[in-house]
Amino acid sequence: MADEKNSGNGSIRRRPWDLVWDLVVETVLLELSGLAVFGVFTLLAWPFGWPPDPGLAALPTSMLAGWPAVESYRAGPPPRRLAVVAAVLALATVTLLVAAAANWAFPALADSDVGIVIGYLVAIPVGAGVFAWCLNRANVA
Fold first, then answer.
1. Distance (Å, whole) CA 61 – CA 4
2. pLDDT tens for each residue of 77-118
3. Separation of alpha carbons 76 and 43, rounded Å
């Protein structure tokens, strides 16, 4: 990349937002793979009388999408509790905002909790990005 600079000791300095971008992209890709796993499971179980539950879609998705943030937490600097608190607050805020917008836009789906699932799926990468941004700020400071 053109913005990467060699500092002379063999290490390449990256832009500050590269960690955030990498974590968000990896989270989105893993989230899509979690939805694919849920979709395959649903297609296999549906003929046997198991109707798909939209709330259950968040379980494999969050389990797969959470690994990059867990690895960043393990490798992060010591003041990472604040990053976790900020990520959880961002996750909750975005979930509720998107759920309210989805329930307003699609009132027929409000009773089946589809809005909260959509909000949660949108909020997972946002929470991962906030977490990585807070960790990155702790590394810079």
1. 33
2. 666 788 888 988 999 999 999 999 999 998 888 777 888 888
3. 39
Strand partners of residue 12: 6
Which among 29, 53, 31 has a CA at the least distance from the CA of 41? 53
**Burial (CB count <10 Å: 0-12, 13-18, 19+), residue 1:** exposed
Strands 12-13 and 5-6: antiparallel
The pair of structure tokens assigned to 12 is 């390449």
Closest CA to 131 of 64, 72, 47, 48: 72
Helices (H), 10-113: 18-45, 58-65, 67-75, 81-105
Q: CA torsion sign, 110 to 122 to 66 to 26?
A: positive
Quote the pTM value.
0.73
**Taking 80 as the threshold, does the pLDDT of residue 42 lie above it?**
yes
DSSP summary character for residue 11: -
pLDDT of 43-87, one tens digit each? 898 888 888 777 777 777 887 788 888 777 777 666 678 888 898
